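Much of what follows relies on a compact textual record of a protein's fold. A record is reproduced here so that you can trace the correspondence yourselves:

. . .
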Amino acid sequence: MSRITIPAAENTFEAAKPLLDAVQKQLGIVPNLMKLLGQSPAALEGYLSLNGALAKASLNVALRERIALTIAEFNGCDYCLSAHDYLGRNVARIHDTEIAAARDARSEDARTEAALQFALRVAQTRGQVSDAELASLRLAGFDQAAVLEIVVTVALNILTNYVNNVAHTDIDFPLVQAKAA
């Protein structure tokens, strides 16, 4: 059960309602994470703005979903694992074996694996990656903009992992649990 109240629609702050309506229009549902963030319209707006900006970046949705799975597994966030497993399968159309591999920062595609390994190192080292790790990512074909987008994607996912881990957000997707919670 969530440790921070997820408000019913009639109890949502007025400032959050247009943001949640936009989520409803885009996704067809309002996930509990969004409802939870609606407790602070500023937090919800910040999350939605950054997420929207990354959707326009050079990293495709499949890679962003794989990074989300890698980071959710690293942080033991069952909510985010459940959400990104669902989104990976149903939006990004990632195959089951690649979903499972992404949780371990792996992929059958060497370029994708390089991005996932780098994303994991960013989380593990709190951004203090080595010159060699950065060079390895660049050798895999990622330019400076993509490097920054990977780092920001990691940060966005750490944000949601932490919010959900603190709140124990009620999971409203098919349940996926972290391997080592």
